[in-house]
């Protein structure tokens, strides 16, 4: 029981670290998406569209990473 609890705590710490990192990435992603929308609004749609695609790809990465970390945490529950 004690070893299982220790293993769960390690997995939980990894989960918390991943979610902290992803929050920071998500804040930067919102800046990238905002820049893309602003560029499209000002008339530079050619550049703004690339920023928006980059923001969308980062958003998918963050979402997938969070889901994978959460599933690992559920598997390790005692």
Structure description:
There is one protein chain. With 78 residues, the protein is mainly alpha-helical. The protein has a domain at 26-78. The chain has helices spanning 2-42, 45-75. Helix 1 (2-42) runs antiparallel to helix 2. The relative contact order is 0.17.
Number-wise, the strands total: 0
Task: Spell the H/E element sequence.
Answer: HH
Radius of gyration: 18 Å
Unreliable segments of 5+ consecutive residues? none
Relative strand content: under 5%
Which structural class best describes the helix and strand composition?
mainly alpha
**Count of helix runs:** 2
Q: Biggest sheet: strands, sense, closure? A: none
Distance between the termini: 8 Å
- Helix proportion of residues, in percent? over 70%
Mean pLDDT across every amino acid position: 92
Shape: rod-shaped
Transmembrane segments: 51-69
Keywords: Membrane, Transmembrane, Transmembrane helix
